[in-house]
UniProtKB/TrEMBL annotation:
SUPFAM superfamilies: GroES-like, NAD(P)-binding Rossmann-fold domains
Entry keyword set: NADP, Oxidoreductase
Family annotation (InterPro entries): ADH-like_C, ADH-like_N, ER, GroES-like_sf, NAD(P)-bd_dom_sf, QOR-like, Quin_OxRdtase/zeta-crystal_CS
Parts of the chain that traverse the membrane: none
Gene Ontology molecular-function annotations: mRNA 3'-UTR AU-rich region binding; NADPH binding; quinone reductase (NADPH) activity; zinc ion binding
Keyword NADP: yes
Name of the protein this chain belongs to: Unannotated protein
Keyword ATP-binding: no
Domain spans labelled Enoyl reductase (ER): 11-319
A GO CC annotation given for this chain: cytosol
Lineage of source species: unclassified sequences, metagenomes, ecological metagenomes
Pfam name, any one: ADH_zinc_N
Length: 321
């Protein structure tokens, strides 16, 4: 028998309940992973709320790291006892998780398992944003919202590695301190951030805005861009963006906007290995710091989601089975 957090209907955090479930059995080309650390992400909240419809009953979660405890038929390259991380599994809020073998990413023996559990989804997101969605180069200026969040702290560091100038928004002095340690060149508040961003770029505007906040920042993010700049809308922590008139892109200076999704940037095993291996190397070399902002017992997943949604936290939140 295994344990999991499950929901029978969409709603608030109270719909998440800790329950016994049959131990999953891995199918063809699948492994069973016993996670030691499970990531908490906004997509888990969107699914709980019904913003992203799911089949019910539903066990949330996509991400974690742990040990392979069983293998299905057709699995090659993975053995019982191997340590792996994953970022696109189903039903990860559990003591046993089925993972497609080809998506399991190796965790070095000398890497802390909590760091490995905190890195996959947000790390790969940050990696594809600065390397593929808008490949940053020296001379670029990027505005990164929520600079002390899990993605934000990683984005700042990866953007600086690529030589970009970074402006980031935060909401508290504590978060400002974290963003500065991560390497941000300018840390500003959300009030009139578009005006401040233009002042910091001599009235020109930034090359790109990485916006995971959504509704509350969207229009001013567009205002922050230079002519032919790009808004990369990769999340909606404040709610989904309302429909808008595409003419707004013309009047703003022939602007670009994209709404990327991680799955479209993990289309081949080679692409997945490239992103994961670069992140692991950066962590192990000390160039990339992964901040864990809180650890919660698996049974307290509702509280973890509440804290994340209230934006009370910094860095990554983990569930511990």
């Amino acid at each position: 028998m295994a344990h999991a957090i499950a929901m029978d209907e969409p709603g608030g955090p109270e719909v998440l309940r800790y329950r016994d479930i049959p131990t999953p059995i891995p199918g063809h080309a699948e492994v069973l992973v016993r996670p030691h650390a499970i990531g908490v992400n906004f997509i888990d909240i969107y699914r709980r709320q019904g913003v992203y419809p799911v089949s019910l009953p539903h066990i949330p979660g996509m991400e974690g790291a742990g040990e392979v405890v069983a293998r299905g038929e057709g699995v090659t390259g993975l053995s019982i006892g191997d340590r792996v991380a994953f970022c696109d599994a189903a039903s990860a809020y559990a003591t046993d998780v089925v993972v497609a073998a080809e998506t399991a990413m190796p965790v070095p023996e000398n890497m802390d398992i909590d760091i490995a559990g905190a890195l996959p989804l947000q790390g790969i997101t940050a990696h594809y944003l600065v390397n593929s969605t808008f490949p940053l180069e020296p001379g670029h200026t990027a505005l990164i919202h929520a600079g002390a969040g899990g993605v934000g702290l990683l984005l700042i560091q990866l953007a600086k590695m690529r030589g970009a100038r970074v402006i980031t928004t935060v909401s508290t002095p504590e978060k400002e301190a974290l963003a500065r340690v991560a390497g941000a060149d300018h840390v500003i508040g959300y009030d009139n951030f578009d005006v401040v961003a233009r002042d910091l770029t001599d009235g020109i505007g930034v090359d790109v805005v990485f916006d995971g906040v959504g509704k509350a920042t969207f229009d001013r993010s567009l205002n922050s861009l230079r002519s032919r700049g790009m808004l990369v809308l990769f999340g909606a922590a404040s709610g989904p963006v309302d429909p808008f008139d595409l003419q707004r892109l013309n009047s703003g200076g022939s602007l670009f906007i994209t709404r990327p999704s991680m799955g479209h940037y993990l289309q081949t095993p080679e692409e997945r290995a490239w992103r994961w291996n670069e992140l692991v190397e950066a962590v192990q070399s000390g160039r990339l710091d992964v901040r864990i902002g809180g650890r919660y017992p698996l049974a307290e997943a509702a509280r973890a989601q509440e804290d994340l949604a209230a934006r009370k936290t910094t860095g990554k939140l983990l569930l511990k089975p």
